[in-house]
What does this fold into?
Amino acid sequence: MEFVDWLNASVYLFNKGLLNAAKIGSIYALGAVGITLVFGILRFAHFAHGDMMTFGAMVALGGTVLLREAGINLHPVPTGLLALPLAAAATILLAIFVDKNVYAHFRARRSPPVVFVMTSIGVTFVLQGVVRLIGGTGDRQFFFVVEHAGQRIREDKERWIVNFQWLRDHFEGFRENLVITAPQLWLFIFTAVALVCLHYFLTRTRTGKAMRAVSDNEDLARISGIDVGRMVSVTWIIAATLCAIAGTLLAMDTQYKPILAFSILLPMFAAAIIGGIGKPFGAVLGGFIVGAAETFAVFDWRPVAGRLFESVDMTQSMALVPAEYKLAVPFVILVLVLVWRPTGLFKGQVL
Amino acid sequence: MSFLLEARGMVAGYGELTILHGCDITVEPGRISVVVGANGAGKSTAMKAIFGLLPLREGRVEFDGRDVTGFTPQQLVKAGMGYVPQVSNVFPSLSVEENLEMGAFLAPQKVAPGLERVYGIFPVLREKRRQPAGQLSGGQRQMVAVGRALMMDPRLLMLDEPTAGVSPKVMGDIFDIIEKVNESDVGVLMVEQNARQALAIADTGFVLQTGTNLYTDSGEALLADPEVVRSFLGGKT
Ligand SMILES: Nc1ncnc2c1ncn2[C@@H]1O[C@H](COP(=O)(O)OP(=O)(O)OP(=O)(O)O)[C@@H](O)[C@H]1O
Ligand SMILES: [Mg+2]
It folds into this structure.
């Protein structure tokens, strides 16, 4: 085992492990922040959060089709991103529409939280129907071929390969590349920008502080003259925007499918709870923890070990957990957190 | 005589339950009114009814010569009332300064002068301004709670048991603060368990029992009334 083996193994691990963990972690973080904000202000577990993401992705896909057919592009920015403002606007409208027509009704009657939770499960089912009605039941790529003015025009999922020329020149035997796709890169950029903006909003602006005040003590917020109804709307606007970003970029990275939300809802809740419900930056950390745990639990260490040692049995998987059980990982973390620290890492509320 | 606050014949309660059966509470401009009574007499309920947190079934509330019956808390804050509830009266995860800022949420231009005024009254809060209010001692938390209500520079400050759970020393401080606030011509309406001390600074005292006025008189007169002393103050004059 030589130093260059370590280099090869590290770059491989970074590329196939950490990058994926950060990617799925970003999605979970964006979702979990929304869940935690909705819980803080409206005080219920919003189960329709995943399907709001799917809805956003669907609108973005529709917008992408229209833009591509109209021949509009801003290469090298993926066309899907150009449709993101539309997706965000539509998701915001959806969230406000559902709130005004469904949740507001139960708020006026001061229904207990469990009613809201059940209602949001109902909203989930309706949204799944709506998404299939509008977007179809099939899976679709964001990068497709269109006929435009008699020509077939493709848009490729751009990928950048970092080949570490310096390392190649200086270390004989170094042969790894780092591959990052455009959707991944944009996801990291959007996540970082969204979280910085959110932090600024919550800690520096009058409305953001008022939102935290409502989350802390709703009655006192009212007494102070804060319009709680307006804060509810602001919460939906933020949550829906984050949903549209996460849903669209997830679908761009993999593909759009009507069950996009199915496998990410539980991890997002796990992330929100790990971070301490009602704590937005706890939820972000929770998202990355769940993303990393999930990725590395099913990570096959064979190629890493193979790069380091000669005598590795390459016939057997070296993953801690078989890939089929990936969905169980956040569940296990969730149970562990609920048992040992129900308030999460940052002492949030208890669900 | 004109009142700053004049609540007459208040009937209110929770759901089916009626707690206040025609209760009167008044405050003269720039004076201190104190409400005392046994636990469960309806003191907090009367405060909530005045401040628009409970709907009045009957009765009317006038503030500053204006009918404010049925006003929302927001409207009353704008009209010049500040209210400190009995329990959970701070935002625990917000910093001290953010707590105070929320007190002037309706008038952002009042934040800067309000902070100066409140830090002038409670210098210790200036030192702690970056600390979450939930991490303060009970007495400091009460200061934040009172400070928040003072941010809008109200004409009437309503306090529900401001000395609950604080040490005798801090209790004395809080009474001093209330008198100090009152000196700047702010009317005070206060519910107090420490009836003896509260009545001593009261211009008017109200003794409530099961949601009605049992006695109403000047603080001095109530302290001198053997009947009041025997049943509500425990012990002799
Ligand atoms: N939110 C509520 N819902 C139902 N009943 C209530 C509620 N709050 C108070 N009550 C009832 O109203 C009655 C009066 O309560 P209130 O809080 O006004 O008493 P109080 O005079 O302030 O007492 P204390 O000195 O203990 O603070 C009590 O019998 C209480 O049980
Ligand atoms: Mg009370």
